[in-house]
Amino acid sequence: MKATPRPRRILARRILKWLLCAVLTFAILILMVLVFFSWSAGRREVESPSSAAPTTGHFVQAADAEVFIQEAGPSSGQAVLLIHGMGAWSEIWRETMTPLAEAGFHVIAIDIPPFGYSEKLPGVAQYSRENQAKRILGVLDALNIESAILVGHSVGARPTLEAALGNPGRVDKLVLVAPALGFQVDPEETPHFEQNDPSWLVETLFSIKPLRNALQASSGTNPWLTKNLFTSFVSKTESVTDLRIETLQKPLVVQDLTKATADWLEYLTTAQDASLGSDFNNFKALPMPVFIIWGTADTITPLWQSEALKSLIPGSELSVMEDIGHMPYIEDVEAFNELLLEFLQAKPSTSLETL
Predict the structure, then answer these.
(1) Domain boundaries 49-345, corresponding CATH code
(2) CA nearest 32: which of 44, 22, 24?
(3) Other CB atoms closer than 10 Å to residue 152's CB: what's the count?
(4) Is the peptide bond prior to 210 cis by the omega test (within 30 degrees of 0)?
(5) Residue 213 parent element (H or E)
(6) Of 124, 262, 320, 340, most Cβ neighbours within 10 A?
(7) pTM of this prediction?
(8) DSSP 3-state assignment of 18?
(9) Distance from chain centroid for Cα 333
């Protein structure tokens, strides 16, 4: 005679069935979200860089890429090149460009590829530090500028520093603003680069290109999340104004933005970086004056990294801004510009006090 299943066994089967249904439903919902935002990105990213770019700037051939730049100030003034961080573009520097230009500097803010309106180069390797550094110097070549002051923010500081390490004669001064250089997680360890060992999960996610692109469309290039992402970078949330959000969203209509920024992010996250900047021992050879600006409330690049970086660059100067997060030039515009101008206008032998 066939045995009747015990009540506990029946209950266990029902629970398992319910869990499987819940997991399947959740997976379907996630898939639908990814498909929707991928479709939205395809519908949105239809404009060419030249048609979408604002008339306040122009394109130059910088090494192998068409790079969008914006200029201010007299062309005869000392050149200052501004390089933004992840997800931004040259307009993010507008409130710094104006006072520098008024002080007589020739200010050039660039859209570092693949961001903003610059060319969306196909392929992950296109976004190595070495290639990006060539494009930074290529902007100077296009404008017939022999040397300049370089100012790099966050991950934009990586190619900025690479350009200075590889071509020190072309960099008069170097400014690193909350630079995201890939420091190790443990602050007690000797400072070193620690981003050449991605996890299996990260490598797997990036190896599946449609999934990688869909995740980027759902996050990094999703205009619905611009405000949330922007807010996560700052301490002073009042700096996340509607105007600044609209500014960051303007290039989201450019063709192939999601795919190109996914390529960039894949290189940043998974590539075996063998650049000059990945060896922190090279920092001691920087011959130009170096100025480091950091915020005490920075949660992206913790404050301990500022002292570590200063110790790696002999003679470098550090200014720490109180209660400021990862975007000092947005969170306290006046104080940041004052610090920057003081350094730019100082004679090479002049030493600034660390705040």
Answers:
(1) 3.40.50.1820
(2) 24
(3) 28
(4) no
(5) helix 209-218
(6) 340
(7) 0.92
(8) helix
(9) 19
